[in-house]
Amino acid sequence: MITDAETNFVYFSELLRQKPRYMAFHQKLSQLLDRLGIAYDYLPETRDIWCRDYMPLQVSQDRYVGFSYDPDYLKGERWQHLRTYSGLVYEPMEMKTEKSEIILDGGNVIRWKDKVILTDKIVSENAHQFTKTQLIRRLEEAFRVDHIILIPRYPEDIFGHADGMLRFIDGQTLLIDGFLKSKESGIGDQLLSVLKEHHLEAIPLDFDVPVQSRHNWGYLNFLQMENLLLIPQFGIEEDHPALQQIAAFFPEVVRKGLVHTIDAQDLIRDGGALNCISWNIRI
User: Fold this and answer.
1) Residue-wise pLDDT tens digits, 193-247
2) Residue 253's domain spans which residues?
3) CATH number for the domain harbouring residue 220
4) Predicted local confidence at residue 183, as pLDDT
5) Number of domains forming the structure of the chain
6) Residues 6+ apart with CB under 8 A from 273
7) Which residues of 68-88 are buried (b: 16+ CB within 10 A; e: fewer)?
């Protein structure tokens, strides 16, 4: 797999610069990327700004896998106007893309070179066509990885995505939402057991503040690229501690001056952050 830290080009939905509610955020983002010399572009024919979910997954320099974008949270009639038909977006880009019938949102994929982590939501969404064993085998083949790791989804998250739960620091270490380790989350013991089974160390992102914000999961939804680690800020007490903790795990990135922040309050209020709105690849 191509890891986030190996990517050098990022796409965003065209709606990010067109919708009035996101224009102020987009202006700050584009100015920052221009100043840093980060290459970016926009995707047409999108129905919402969360392009991570409906775009293909890059497996190697010139190979992508496009999954079926048919999420359970968009099944109702009232949500159909938000469903992007991914083929209309990426097929004109003439990428070498293999199509898979597996139902999968890109926001549910946390990747490393030899492994991919997803929540077990993928099992229930594909139960009509694959057993769990068949599904894992097909995912291993599609991603060309040795390990598919299924973690429990957080019950309160209607999307069932992994990109607000944990991120790779390196091939053996994960930064996870500290709340998920607690009994209150309802999945702490199970989550840690799965990670331990796969010889992965889990380091919590914790906050010593009087009242924790319901938005502080969003720090793990940062944008990571070859020459950028962009950490969202939400105008809450956890902003500075989150920046300090995350940066501490990427000392070489800090040394190179590649860690930056951006106010992402406009995004988190709508249920997502930086990883959600971006599709970063290696070109």
Assistant:
1) 999 999 999 999 999 999 999 999 999 999 999 999 999 999 999 999 999 999 9
2) 4-281
3) 3.75.10.10
4) 87
5) 1
6) 164, 218, 219, 221, 222, 232, 264, 267
7) bbebeebeeeeeeeeebebee
